[in-house]
Write a structure and sequence with these properties.
The complex is a heterodimer of chains A (114) and B (115).
Chain A (H helix, E strand, L loop, with lengths): L3 E4 L2 E4 L5 E7 L5 E8 L3 E10 L2 E4 L6 E7 L2 E6 L8 E8 L3 H4 L2 E2 L3 E5 L1
Parallel strand pairs in A: 2-11
Antiparallel strand pairs in A: 1-3, 3-8, 4-5, 4-9, 5-6, 7-8, 9-10, 9-11
Chain B lengths: L2 E4 L4 E4 L4 E3 L1 E4 L5 E7 L5 E7 L5 E4 L2 E4 L9 E3 L8 E12 L2 E6 L3 E6 L1
Parallel strand pairs in B: 2-12
Antiparallel strand pairs in B: 1-4, 3-9, 5-6, 5-10, 7-8, 8-9, 10-11, 10-12
Chain lengths: 114, 115
């Protein structure tokens, strides 16, 4: 099993619908992140959490919300999806030694909003 | 704030050619530096890292040296293969306060290797 699992892998949804992307990890890391990847723009941080009681906005949090249900689970919600939220979404985890070991990434969720 | 600049792609090379992907950074203090690789349809995987000046990271034939004087961490490989076709991301780990570090990523460089 993968260390960081994202579900679903692919999703097509309609404008205005609420959708949740889920992430779970078996690394035992306390820190979790949600990124969005768009062609030519690289990775942009949406939200991050350093523990269950800690949630922080990243550079592009508008239109998104998150929930840290447990140390191992971090979900991303689009309350009312719009077409420009079509992108590849990645969850990542790290421990307190990110400076030395970097992040571990999931395989991504490809979201299409029509 | 911290930033990472990579050469824009796409880069197309013939098999066995020499690869260089340039990466420069701006950061306070002494960040750790990373290269990640993203194969088609997959997430990012750590390729190599260097945690202090003059360190050389290496893996799978790829190398990069942490150059503090030029704030650079260029990725090199002497002979690329078709299987190296992927998107490569340079990243730094910068201090974000309260004892925490976060990664800042470059925009990625797409490499295509043709037989």
């Amino acid at each position: 099993d993968a260390d960081v699992t994202q579900t679903p892998r692919n999703r097509i949804t309609k404008t205005g619908k609420r959708i949740m992307l889920e992430c779970s990890q078996t690394k035992g890391h306390d820190r979790m992140y949600w990124y969005r990847q768009d062609p030519g723009l690289g990775l942009r941080l949406i939200y991050y959490s350093f523990d269950v009681k800690d949630i922080n906005k990243g550079e592009i949090s508008d239109g998104y919300s998150v929930s840290r249900q447990a140390q191992a689970k971090f979900s991303l919600s689009l309350e009312s999806a719009i077409p420009n939220q079509t992108a590849l979404y990645f969850c990542a985890t790290s421990d307190g030694q990110a400076a030395n070991y970097g992040y571990t990434f999931g395989s991504g969720t490809r979201l299409t909003v029509v | 704030g911290d930033s990472v600049t990579q050469m824009e792609g796409p880069v197309t090379l013939s098999e066995e050619a020499f690869l260089t992907i340039n990466c420069t950074y701006t950061a306070t203090g002494y960040p750790s530096l990373f290269w990640y690789v993203q194969y088609p349809g997959e997430g990012l995987q750590l390729l190599l890292k260097a945690t202090k000046a003059d360190d050389k990271g290496s893996n799978k034939g790829f190398e990069a040296t942490y150059r503090k004087e030029t704030t650079s961490f260029h990725l090199e490989k002497g002979s690329v293969q078709v299987s190296d076709s992927a998107v490569y991301f340079c990243a730094l780990s910068g201090y974000s306060g309260a004892g925490s570090y976060q990664l800042t990523f470059g925009k990625g460089t797409k490499l295509s290797v043709i037989p």
